[in-house]
């Protein structure tokens, strides 16, 4: 049964019941979990459902079963439909971005999906960096390629698995596969298409980039862009058949909407498997070090300067597994060790595909220094959390944060880590709890359908965490040390 919140109890009878009759569903097909929530007209979550989905990690490769992902979507929809009385006004859909999801004409898998976490194209990206292709593409599109984005993955498949590309009707993204199988409509949107083939100014594919990556003969695999986002109705064989649904944006842009990050200069930090930093901008900046991307949104003239780092909660999970520490003990361990972690330092770049933002370094790996026989699990945990905080600051600096900062994601469940982030970043954090991506997907769908919602109420922060001035000053100096150690590590990675 769905998890039902107290908000539903407030809307059982009288005038409030009529208002609560307008219900909205948001679906977020994430990397490790498919989540869905029912919201009332003021954005209060009435019920939530989730299903885990497996990610196969082996030898630097990361793949997912598309049928499992789609099955999880239909399961959460069916559970919500059974547990919450309708009717439902509309459904907003979002999902993980990047990677390659090869499908046939019916939206069914040709092979397993290749995740954004995949590293099989590392050497290809290395070669493109050396030859200047990565920089050339960035100067045209504002997006810096990394091993798990569609350009390198498609080029790798073209060289090593051409039969899979021959059999595919399209190379799509997660939400596009789900949307097609729910509605029969074949489309993607400008947010997912932003990496790496989209010209963010014209909002169309740059065929010169396709040719530069050696994929001109595969141009037909790029799904047509629906601008604005595609809409349709759930098919007859799906739960809630006939309900209106929209197909996008993808999860980073949806989270920005769900957290109310639309004003120029405001930012969002998502502490999830991937540490994503987003800043709302009104211009495309093609200067500087090629890194991150410019996500086009459903509003022409508005972009999200995105630095979606590979580092994130997965780094802390590795340290917890290695030290045999339960997740529930993190807050206590952070309290047990002072800022600076007794000299232990962690460069938290544990991903097998290196780092993609705010720089691209496929061969970069994690480093732990200052460890001795006196080092405790608390030191390692705090040093890792501090290292992730420094990576977040680096991303936000590179993205150009000048306004307020919202924060969401699984990492915010730790109050102590959230306070550490405030101290490391040296600024107040607007905490946005709950299914932020699903919330943003509903807001995008409502705008597309012309349904008026009180966006201020939907995106109101649940709390604001202020930094401690003394700790913030300490971490400003520690961040400078982090950048020096990172620069040296990047030199070693390039020489390896």
Protein model, in words:
- This is Putative sugar kinase.
- GO terms for molecular function: kinase activity.
- Residues 296-446 form the Carbohydrate kinase FGGY C-terminal domain.
- With 496 residues, the protein is an alpha+beta fold.
- The chain has two domains: 3-252, Nucleotidyltransferase, domain 5, CATH 3.30.420.40; 309-431 and 466-495, Nucleotidyltransferase, domain 5.
- The chain contains 17 helices and 23 strands.
- The protein has helices spanning 14-20, 66-83, 122-131, 133-141, 150-160, 162-167, 174-183, 190-193, 207-212, 251-258, 313-323, 330-336, 377-399, 415-425, 436-449, 455-458, 469-495; strands at 3-4, 23-29, 33-39, 45-52, 56-58, 61-64, 88-95, 101-103, 113-114, 170-172, 198-199, 204-205, 231-233, 244-247, 267-271, 275-281, 293-296, 303-309, 345-347, 367-369, 405-408, 429-431, 463-465.
The CATH fourth-level homologous superfamily of the largest domain = ATPase, nucleotide binding domain
| Rg for CA atoms | 22 Å
CATH architecture heading of the largest domain? 2-Layer Sandwich
Strand order of the largest sheet: 1-4-3-2-7-14-13
**CATH class designation of the largest domain:** Alpha Beta
Strand runs, count: 23
Q: What's the N-to-C terminus distance?
A: 52 Å
Q: Average pLDDT value?
A: 93
**Percentage of residues in DSSP E strands:** 15-25%
Tell me roughly what share of residues is in helical segments: 25-40%
**Overall geometric form:** globular
Biggest sheet overview: 7 strands, mixed
Low-confidence runs (pLDDT<50, min 5 residues)? 4-20
The secondary structure category is alpha+beta
User: What is the CATH topology of the largest domain?
Assistant: Nucleotidyltransferase, domain 5
Secondary structure tally, helices: 17
Kindly give the count of domains.
2
Q: Write down the oligomeric state.
A: single chain
């Amino acid at each position: 049964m769905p998890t039902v919140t107290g908000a539903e109890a407030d809307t059982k009878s009288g005038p409030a019941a009529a208002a609560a009759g307008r219900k909205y569903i948001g679906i977020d097909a994430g990397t490790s979990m498919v989540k869905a929530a029912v919201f009332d007209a003021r954005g209060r979550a009435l019920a939530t459902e989730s299903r885990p989905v497996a990610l196969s990690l082996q030898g630097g490769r990361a793949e997912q079963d598309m049928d499992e992902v789609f099955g999880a979507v239909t399961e959460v929809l069916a559970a919500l439909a059974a547990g919450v009385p309708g009717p439902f006004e509309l459904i907003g859909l979002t999902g993980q971005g990047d990677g390659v999801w090869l499908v046939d004409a019916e939206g069914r898998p040709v092979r397993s999906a290749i995740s954004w976490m995949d590293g099989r194209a590392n050497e290809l990206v290395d070669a493109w960096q050396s030859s200047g292709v990565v920089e050339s593409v960035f100067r045209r599109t504002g997006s810096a390629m990394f091993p798990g984005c569609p350009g390198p993955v498609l080029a790798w498949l073209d060289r090593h698995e051409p039969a899979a590309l021959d059999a595919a009707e399209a190379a799509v993204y997660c939400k596009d596969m789900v949307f097609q199988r729910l509605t029969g409509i074949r489309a993607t949107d400008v947010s997912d298409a932003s990496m790496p083939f989209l010209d963010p100014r014209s909002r169309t594919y740059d065929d010169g980039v396709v040719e530069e990556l050696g994929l001109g003969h595969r141009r037909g695999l790029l799904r047509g862009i629906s601008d604005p986002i595609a809409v349709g109705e759930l098919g007859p064989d799906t739960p809630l058949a006939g309900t209106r649904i929209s197909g996008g944006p993808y999860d980073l842009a949806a989270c920005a909407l769900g957290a109310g990050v639309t004003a120029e200069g405001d930012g969002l930090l998502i502490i999830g498997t991937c540490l994503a930093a987003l800043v709302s901008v009104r211009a495309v900046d093609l200067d500087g070090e090629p890194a991150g991307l410019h996500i086009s949104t459903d509003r022409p003239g508005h972009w999200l300067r995105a630095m979606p780092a590979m580092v994130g909660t997965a780094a802390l999970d590795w340290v917890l597994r290695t030290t045999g520490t339960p997740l529930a003990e993190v807050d206590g361990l952070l309290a047990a060790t002072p800022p600076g972690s007794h000299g232990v330092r962690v460069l938290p770049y544990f991903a097998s595909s290196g780092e993609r933002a705010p720089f691209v370094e496929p061969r970069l790996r994690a480093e732990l220094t200052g460890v001795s026989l006196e080092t405790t699990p608390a030191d390692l945990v705090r040093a890792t959390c501090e290292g992730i905080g420094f990576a977040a600051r680096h991303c936000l600096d590179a993205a150009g944060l000048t306004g307020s900062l919202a924060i969401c994601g699984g990492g915010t469940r730790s109050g102590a880590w959230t306070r550490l982030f405030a101290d490391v970043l040296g600024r107040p954090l607007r905490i946005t709890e709950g299914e932020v991506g699903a919330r943003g997907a509903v807001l995008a769908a409502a705008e597309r359908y012309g349904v008026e919602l009180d966006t201020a109420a939907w995106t109101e922060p649940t709390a604001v965490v202020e930094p401690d001035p003394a700790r913030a000053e300490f971490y400003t100096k520690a961040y400078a040390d982090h950048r020096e150690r990172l620069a040296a590590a990047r030199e070693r990675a390039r020489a390896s």
